[in-house]
Amino acid sequence: MTQDTGGSFHQMWRELLPLGRHPDSGGYRRFAWSGVDGDCRAWFEDQATARGLRFEVDRNGNQWAWLGDPAEGDAVVTGSHLDSVPDGGAFDGPLGVVSAFAALDELRGRNARFDRPLAIVNFGDEEGARFGLACVGSRLTAGRLTREQAHRLTDGDGVTLPRAMEAAGYDPDAIGPDPERLARIGAFVELHVEQGRALDLSGDRVGIASAIWPHGRWRFDFRGEANHAGTTRLADRRDPMLSYAETVLAARREAELAGAVATFGKIAVEPNGVNAIPSLVRGWLDSRAEDQTSLDTVVGGIEKAARSYADAHGVDLDIVRESFTPVVEFDHALRDELARILGTDAGLTVPVLGTGAGHDAGILSGSIPTAMLFVRNPTGVSHSPAESASEDDCVAGVLALADVLEGLACR
Ligand SMILES: [Zn+2]
After folding, report:
1. How far is the CA of 191 from the centre of ligand 1 (A)?
2. Ion ligand 1 — residues with CB < 5 Å
3. Å from CA of 101 to ligand 1 middle
4. Please, where are the H alpha helices in 123-276?
5. How far away, in angstroms, is 136 Cα from ligand 1 center?
6. What is the whole-number distance in angstroms between the Cα of residue 21 and the centre of ligand 1?
7. Each residue of 247-269: pLDDT tens digit?
8. Which pLDDT does position 87 carry in this prediction?
9. What's the CA-to-centroid distance between 132 and ligand 1, angstroms?
10. Are 211 and 328 a contacting pair, CB within 8 Å?
């Protein structure tokens, strides 16, 4: 490590830390195209210009800081996002951006000579906290979200995405696919805090991503009969809450059997009265598994159980799949290259692990070779103020990223 790498990381981290932090919860509220998002973006631009990098914003509002001439092609790109979920943690996103600048500082300290262009990127609206769709910046760029679809996105206050972009000083009519930009990129490496405890359990500071698990959302509508909670005999009830509750337990069982995850995290009840048997319980299932077969097994098992519980209680059941994302396998050659670089240059045995969370790197993997590095998160908690990573692990992540960038861009 060159002398200042830890210092450069911590100085940037300290500057970014107060932006958008809520005084009561301690969590971050950095929503796309808000004033706080603008502060984070100004910080990014400052970092780029302070290092003499060429700063630009693409047609979709993603920010880029270039070392070398992008027109040469085969660029190595690293970075992540600066926005957050409501009351998110400090690390999800910013760790990848700050580590990218710190890794560049480290490489300059090593007098590294780049023979490929290098860029640091901040993708806009990764979390989808405001408009309900994740990875809008990278989806638009990759042509996986059309301008028309994006223009229909609306936040909870009724503000549309185009109006929000306009208010932040960007041109919403310019958004759309950016194949020329992607064609210039030879590799994208996103460093991210781990959103689980695999590294904590294995005792490693840094890991390499293998794949993003297939995942989806299913809506379960259990319909029974509303009635008086005091006067209706138990035997006479058609109570959808009972079949819903049994289904939640079945989801846990099926997920455990398959080594997957399944969560009912959102529920709507009608009429939603303390003294009324519900007429409708609507629950949303989020399930993710290592591979498609396991996911099919889990969700199939939950559906079968839900139907039998509904039958037993005289309740009608409709199940609708609301969204689905198939497995994303990261580029095997790039992944193996990362493992080789970290194995030989840094002398690390770096575990390769799957993840249940979506990322810009996953969106872009359909267009360009992408890879991810994970940094240990001892709590395993993410999307919460309890998300964490130790200072030593953050610096280990910076050094691993620097090794990777050097191995890829400085031959
Ligand atoms: Zn993230």
Report:
1. 9
2. 92-93
3. 17
4. 136-141, 147-151, 161-167, 179-183, 198-202, 240-258
5. 13
6. 17
7. 999 999 999 999 999 999 999 99
8. 93
9. 15
10. yes
Instruction: At 252, list the tokens.
Output: 């846990």
Residue ranges of the chain with per-residue pLDDT less than 70: 1-3, 345-346
Distance in Å, CA 127 to ligand 1 centroid? 7
SS (H, E, C) 92-113: CCHHHHHHHHHHHHHHHHCCCC
Distance 30 CA to ligand 1 centre (A): 12
Q: How far is the CA of 84 from the centre of ligand 1 (A)?
A: 8
With residue 41 as reference, give the H or E element that holds it.
Answer: helix 35-50
Is this model's pTM higher than 0.90 or not?
A: no
What are 370-405's pLDDT values in tens digits? 999 999 999 999 999 999 999 999 999 999 999 999
DSSP letter string, 5-25: HHHHHHHHHHHHTTTTB-TTT
pLDDT tens for each residue of 188-230: 999 999 999 999 999 999 999 999 999 999 999 999 999 999 9
Please state, as a whole number, how many other Cβ atoms lie within 10 Å of the Cβ of residue 318. 11
Alpha-carbon span 30 to 58, nearest angstrom: 20
361 C-alpha vs ligand 1 centroid, how far in Å? 10
First to last CA, the chain: 19
At 346 the pLDDT is 67
* C-alpha distance from residue 398 to each of 1, 4, 75, 125, 359 (Å): 10, 12, 19, 24, 19
CA angle in degrees (0–180, nearest 5) for 379-356-284: 100
Ligand 1 mean position, distance from CA 223 (Å)? 37
Beta pairing, strands 215-223 & 261-270 = unpaired
Q: Are 369 and 380 in contact (CB under 8 A)?
A: no
